[in-house]
Structure to design on (229 residues):
């Protein structure tokens, strides 16, 4: 079955970086975008950007430009989201989600990765 | 890009129908038929309910339906069931290959 499995929870100090992985299975990895969405405690969903694993092209939400880097390794069907210069308000659950190219919806979601930022 | 506007909460009794609105602008919801809706139960990942305003993925109950008028999209849930109690989020394409989510609506089944 189609599945996205994310890496485990992370605890980071302010100013550090975090890298979250998202391993895909059950479909052609290069055939879909991979979006990253985060959710702060008790808050709504916030779209961060997407990567096209086929080309490596990325598109980031303006809020995260300069701080986020999305990459992928097609040989192991895995996408990564790297967020730098962490602040306390980056504490959130980070989700990866598959999306058909150019249709901008997300039909399969990972289980989420909790990132806690605290001194 | 500002978040789309959703009511913070809605409620209904079992068997009733409810609608959740999602208001954007003529630059996002009003310009593209690329609105999607997601259901999220506490502690779980979101699940796709509706895409491209009105389409339902296979496996999603036909009690869920979507529509759009002008700059406002709506999700309607008919025959409300206890298991529908969850948070609901809309999402719209806003141009330049980007999307934005609504603030979310908490549905309470009385």
């Amino acid at each position: 079955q189609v599945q996205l499995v994310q890496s485990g929870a992370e605890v980071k100090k302010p100013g550090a970086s975090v890298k979250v992985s998202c391993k895909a299975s059950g479909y052609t990895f290069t055939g879909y975008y991979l979006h990253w969405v985060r959710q702060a405690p008790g808050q709504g969903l916030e779209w961060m950007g997407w990567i096209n694993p086929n080309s490596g092209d990325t598109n980031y939400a303006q809020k995260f430009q300069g701080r986020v880097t999305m990459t992928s390794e097609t040989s192991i069907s895995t996408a990564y989201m790297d967020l730098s210069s962490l602040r306390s308000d980056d504490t959130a659950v980070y989700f990866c989600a598959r999306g058909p190219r150019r249709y901008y919806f997300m039909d399969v979601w990972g289980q989420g990765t909790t990132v806690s930022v605290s001194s | 890009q500002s978040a789309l506007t959703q009511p913070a909460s809605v409620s209904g009794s079992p068997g009733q129908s409810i609608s959740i609105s999602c208001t954007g602008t003529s630059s996002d919801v009003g310009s593209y038929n690329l609105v999607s809706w997601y259901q999220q139960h506490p502690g779980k990942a979101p699940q796709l309910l509706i895409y491209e305003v009105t389409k339902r993925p296979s496996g999603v109950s036909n009690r869920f339906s979507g529509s759009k008028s002008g700059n406002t999209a709506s999700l309607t849930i008919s025959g409300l069931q206890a298991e529908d109690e969850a948070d609901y989020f809309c999402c719209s394409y806003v141009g330049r290959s980007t999307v934005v989510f609504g603030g979310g609506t908490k549905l309470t089944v009385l």
